[in-house]
Amino acid sequence: MDRELALELVRVTEAAAIASAQWMGRGDKMSADDAATTAMRTMFDSVSMEGVVVIGEGELDEAPMLYIGEELGNKTGPSVDIAVDPLEGTNIVSKGHNNAVAVIAAAERGALLHAPDMYMDKIAVGKYAKGLIHIDDPIERTIDIVARANNKRVRDLTVIIQERDRHQDIIDRVIKKGARVKLFGDGDVGASIATCLPETGVDLFVGRGGAPEGVISAAAIKSLGGDMQARLAPQDEEEMERCRQMGLEDPLQHLTLDHLVKSDDAIFAATGVTEGELLDGVKFLGGDLAQTDSIVMRAKTRTVRFIKAHHHLDYKPHLVKNEE
Ligand SMILES: O=P(O)(O)OC[C@H]1O[C@](O)(COP(=O)(O)O)[C@@H](O)[C@@H]1O
């Protein structure tokens, strides 16, 4: 997969971000998600690839667009697996909070784990701690390992955790150990990637979140040279069976970064929808002008590009929300 495909995928996330940002703060997460999905689906038609959705909006009977198995692209380019989250942080947008993004991960055909839509336990770190962590280690040991690797004192180490009741024990243990917690409401793709960007001050991501988000994050973490491990967390026998049907013989398998994204030929693209630590949100600058802020990276070359773009919405009427 080449640089051109990476840049084409940014056009797709930009469109999804512009469409959904118009729903910010309107208390309607479904419409925000629909707007992102429709815009993303439309843009995919012109992308030079033979893509197949492996992580999308659901099975064919659940989602009219971007369903698992759907073919995308104009069939002139490489054969790729596509994982999408048109709006990562639906609640964020409906409430006007920070850190919602539109995201796509792509990898050569067969390389992305086909993760069912269920919970997954995850741990992520930046490049200095790569190869040193294990998801089954007690958090206290992991903190010591990452502090040493990142050349920080434990008291200066920051662990980012989604603020959920299920994480209370781990939050208490991080604080007792003397490290810092940084809690976030929604959006664990951005939170896990933050471990790989030293300027965020985040050293370690731990917790249980969506499995699809886990695979998408893994494409970014691979491109940034960091490390991630995971394990699906099926909640009952029915979910165990779903894992098996998706090709995971052992649903509780210890998943390394290379299980999540099997190839080094992977691309991650994201555009901010609302303001965030990683990316600015979509800014409507007056008149028909909208500004987007995106990041795109390729695991093959480890190049990370930040792209600010101005869009004249008079020329993109399909992205403009209809006013009833
Ligand atoms: O809200 P839950 O059930 O704790 O699930 C956690 C998941 O929800 C999110 O915070 C937001 O997901 P949505 O965009 O689908 O609302 C994910 O980033 C995270 O993986």
TrEMBL record:
Binding of Mn(2+) 2, residues: D85, E88, E213
Q: Which GO terms describe its biological process?
A: fructose 1,6-bisphosphate metabolic process; gluconeogenesis; glycerol metabolic process
Which coenzyme or cofactor does it need?
A: Mn(2+)
Pfam families listed in its UniProt record: FBPase_glpX
Keywords linked to the UniProt accession: Carbohydrate metabolism, Hydrolase, Manganese, Metal-binding
Q: Which domain of life is it from?
A: Bacteria
> Which residues participate in Mn(2+) 1 binding?
D33, E57
Q: Which reaction does it catalyse?
A: beta-D-fructose 1,6-bisphosphate + H2O = beta-D-fructose 6-phosphate + phosphate
Sequence similarity = Belongs to the FBPase class 2 family.
Q: Could you identify this protein by its name? A: Fructose-1,6-bisphosphatase
User: Which species is this UniProt entry from?
Assistant: Halobacillus halophilus (strain ATCC 35676 / DSM 2266 / JCM 20832 / KCTC 3685 / LMG 17431 / NBRC 102448 / NCIMB 2269)
